Amino acid sequence: MKNVKMxxxxxxxxxxxxxxxxxxxxxxxxxxMWILIFTLMPIIFGYLFYFYFWKTKCEESETLKETxxxxxxxxxxxxxxxxxxxxxxxxxxxxxxxxxTFFIEQTPWIWLNYMTIILLGHISRFIYLKKLRxxxx
Length: 137
Description:
The chain is mostly helical. It has helices at 4-28, 30-56, 63-94, 102-105, 109-135.
């Protein structure tokens, strides 16, 4: 990976935004939460993927490998953070038992979020390549 530190920083920015929006909208309506997550997340994470390529000046020949590495890293970190936050931290904060069935209860939505990361990575890659080719014909 060209820049692990930057990729993690960008991921945490996106995750923080999605988490804040998720918590605020959850208290309003759980369906609103999922709608906002699935409309805002593609915009935010799509931009963050693109921004990563642009900032690292990823060359055309490197973009597929870099995209796949970024996708694997972001899904792995997202899964781990979801587990820590929603299975351990939130139950402790609210004085509940750990929710070991979190990923089952959030099916299919949480898995769709992870699938969205895959799609966004490749869509952002294609947009980056198009822009790169228009600058360097």
